[in-house]
Fold X-Pro dipeptidyl-peptidase.
Amino acid sequence: MTHLAPMIHQLHDLLPVRPPETVSMRTRDGVRLDADLYRPDAAGTWPVLLLRVACGRRIALTSHYAHPRWYAAQGYVVVVQDVRGCGTSDGRFRPFEAEREDGADAVAWAASLPGSSGVVAMYGCGYAGMAQWLALAERPGALRAVAPAFAGWDVFSDWAYEGGAFRLADAMDWALRSAAEAARRVEDGTGHRILSDAARSLPVDDEIPSRPQALRDYARYSHYDDWLTNPVPGPAWTALSPKAMRADMPADVAVLQIGGWYDPRLAGTLDAHDLLAADRLAARGRASVRLVIGPWGADGPAAAPGEGPTLDTLQLSWFDRVLKGQGSDRGGPVRLHDVETGRWHDLPGLPTAEAVLHLTSDGLANRQGGRLGPEMPDFEALDVVVHDPRGPVPTVGGHAVPSAAGRHDRAAVDRRPDVATYTSLPLDEPLMLAGRVALDLWVEADAPSFDVSAVLSVLRPDGQVLPLTQGHARVEPGDPTRPLTIAMRAACATLAPGSALRLSLAGSCFPAYPVNPGTGAEPGETRRVDALPITLLIHSGPDRPSRLRLPAS
């Protein structure tokens, strides 16, 4: 089923809103958390919307959402709280460590505030989304709904690493901004200025690109070193991750997940939906689990304003239905925005990658291009791509550098000699892709460690090459590469006749991920001078069948 716009909220008269009040609570271990309270200036009681933020409650995530006054005018008590160690709340900020207990305490406290009906829902994106998952795992009695957006599910694989590679630009950007806030709280003006300036222009050209001087000098303000020096899953990551707490999450709380095609944490959002939907089905839970993926990135809309529903209209109509019993339940469990047509598609679930396109070449995929086709090639082929660390292949669009996320033309990058491209024949009729994408690549290198960046794009008749999805893998010594399976996130696009699919392969995607030095050394120990050229050998053919797996219909 296809709709032009999903879950549009029906407008009604707005209520007057009282002036905001600053209110405080104490956590179970005695830490004071401060919040701003917005509520209707009218008789009655109202459901509570709780937003717990690490970026300052006065900002209230207005980069993504309407101001809390707007929600209060719709008939809600809205509480915007600084999490522990942020804003004016007491304590020390350590990402995710206290959000399970603090979040549950905040829900119980919010339910008792003036004007509250005793029913609480949570909303927010990024860190505020993860705070919802963690609070949910503590099972607070008043919590009826959560709406995490751009949050992911696992701290290791959604926030710190992807395919074994450190999420350099994303992780460094957040670390610098949170460290600058920590410096501000202790009135360290010099540290705040240095860290803030570095956040505006990431210092990835430092001597040690993955560990720049600003973060070395002010490591006391940041979690960055802890993440950078812990490159494998383990107990430290598990203790922070909602994924590990899935069994603790009740089946009677409604869940609306909002994700974006250009959100770094999309893969975790999809995993969470699949797992929670399965749990509800097994437990016969009646609370709904819904997933909406739109043309958005972690830093806000990646499409022009006015092209479709906002985060506010999406979640307000859902809150009205779940918390107030108002409105109808429109659409399916999964709703996807089509990046080519702009339409919305309702699906019962997220399709898997079942259609196959094989890679084939005459050995010049990095010069004149290879082919993607449904038939297995009759002959073996080998493409040789040389990665030069002095000029790594840059990140263009996609999800991995939030400040530059979106669909940016990568035609010029595909013409580089260190990028191998494989392109299908132009389509004779429309082709819809909706669901997960994966790549099975037979690849080897002349170095103990190497990276593979894979980008799937649509090649339009006018020559534009616009990314649909991408994946990245860091291969460590001894990792299997026969084949190397790269998860390429998910996509939703209906390709028009005359368009073609293109797969682009390279040995780097910088600054989204660190340049692999080829030695097996960790990013935090690698200087620019240490990186070596790496030769990639990409195989295709009957004996080593490199192939792209697609959710095509």
